[in-house]
Backbone:
């Protein structure tokens, strides 16, 4: 599984961005996709997960109500719509995957496949 992110960029506070993550190479029907972000010097923060098999979604409290994770099955793409962005949302954003149901996982060690990241800068 190889996630590839896109859609990052610079945006003014209060604005929106939509990140995309194209996933290739998977052969299982049950796996979990997640979005994370990282500020230099800090651990990666889990933001949202999408369980491909169960079609369930989970959000971290810090983004619930502002960010929306969704999936286009035909395009094998997972999206993260980010609204009402603030300075605190400036970070490198990563897409991740694991060959297992999401369950309650939302931490970096629980995911085995990672994209290269896309930078989001809010000013």
Residues:
């Amino acid at each position: 599984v190889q996630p590839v992110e896109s859609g990052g960029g610079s945006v003014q506070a209060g604005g929106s961005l939509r990140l995309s993550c194209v996933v290739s190479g998977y052969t299982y029907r049950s796996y979990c996709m997640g979005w994370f972000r990282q500020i230099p010097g800090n651990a990666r923060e889990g933001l949202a997960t999408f369980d491909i098999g169960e079609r369930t979604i989970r959000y971290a409290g810090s983004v619930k109500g502002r960010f929306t994770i969704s999936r286009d099955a035909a395009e094998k793409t997972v999206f993260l719509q980010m609204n009402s962005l603030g300075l605190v949302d400036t970070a490198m954003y990563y897409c991740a995957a694991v060959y297992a149901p999401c369950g309650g996982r939302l931490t970096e060690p629980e995911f085995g496949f990672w994209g290269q990241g896309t930078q989001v800068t809010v000013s």
Q: What stands out?
A: The longest strand covers residues 17-24. The chain has a mean pLDDT of 92.
